[in-house]
Amino acid sequence: MREMMQKLRDASIQAILESENVESLEALRVKYLGKKGELTGILRQMGKLSAEERPAMGQLANQLRADIESAIDARRSELMSAMMEKKLELEAIDVTLPSEDVRVGHKHPMYNVLDQIKDIFVGMGFEIVDGPEVELADYNFTKLNIEDTHPSREWTDTFYFKDDSSILLRTQTSPMQVHAMETKPLPIRMIAPGRVYRKDEVDATHSPMFHQIEGMVIDKGVTMADLKATLNLVVEKIYGKGTVTRFRPHHFPFTEPSCEMDIQCHKCGGKGCPTCKGQGWIEVLGAGMVHPKVLAGCGIDPEIYSGWAFGMGLERLAMGEYKITDLRLIFENDVRFLEQF
Ligand code: PHE
Question: Which ranges of the chain have pLDDT less than 50?
Fold first, then answer.
């Protein structure tokens, strides 16, 4: 029996040292120490021993069990750390490898121009306000003194949501004048940039969606001189000192008097060139003194208060600034185009 145990010791320790993974190690534990294992098999034969021999053999067997167990434990931790090392090696990161190319974007050129304009007006104490693109016809037209028969109300010109023509996509940012006058305490100095929509076919100068910036001042004693002085200042900040402007009479239902402002072409100085299409002048915006009827409709007494307003197209301004000749380039978002700015 002593011999059998010695044999089992040699064979099991050998097998344990040679085992290659934790699964086969576990199989060895079952094989040697399990209920039906080899050590149990030997112990079954204890009955054949004499009473004097039994305690010594029992002690030997217990020692053998403990030795096999600690051999298995030692081998297990060896295998585990080898596994961990392999895993670390596999997951190792080479910090010296060049990284993937990260492309950082930048602001759209048109929004650069918008930011510049916002800065100029904020510097003069104007507030920037935002408003709905889905608008009531009441605000887009009626409260702006635009009569029911005005052609811009036609279904062919304006996107309506309902058959009764009561809700639409705003065709101009001017409804923001009404929103401001109805909700803000006086005096008011605000600009309201945003998208507007008209049923226009897409071409080099038209798009069914484009951007306008509305501006408005309401206070006591505001005159056309304030409008001209303010807009002249803005133009000088955008196009440089000494930029010449001219104000031509025009008609808008919600301003009286109304005008359009042109700037003398900053490329040719008024001689005529491709930028101004040979005109020497570039049309920049529509403006005027807020109509007394519009003021009164918003609950402001036109005998006490007066104000001026303007609306300008943002795309056209950006196209002038960056010498972009086709409006579609602004909306197509082709990176080959955008990367140039
Ligand atoms: N809303 C007008 C347009 O779209 C421009 C404008 C704004 C005119 C404010 C006068 C005052 O043409």
Answer: none
Ligand 1 mean position to 287 CA, how many Å?
A: 6
Name the residue at shortest CA distance from atom 12 of ligand 1. 286
- For the chain, the farthest-separated pair of C-alpha atoms sits apart, in whole angstroms, at 131
Return the exposure string of 180-218: e unless at least 16 CB atoms fall within 10 Å of the residue's CB, then b: bbeeeeeebbbbbbbebbbeeeeeeeebeebbbbbbbbb
Sort residue 145 into left (φ over 0), alpha (ψ -120 to 50) or beta.
left
The pLDDT, as a whole number, for residue 269 is 86
Which residues sit with their C-beta closer than 6 Å to ligand 1? 172, 174, 252, 255, 286-288, 309-311
Predicted TM-score (pTM) above 0.70: yes
Q: How far is the centre of ligand 1, averaged over its atoms, from the C-alpha of 132 (Å)?
A: 17
- Going by CA atoms, what residue is nearest to atom 9 of ligand 1? 310
Q: Write out pLDDT tens, residues 275-329.
A: 788 999 989 999 999 999 999 999 999 999 999 999 999 998 898 888 888 999 9
The Cα 339–Cα 279 span in angstroms is 31
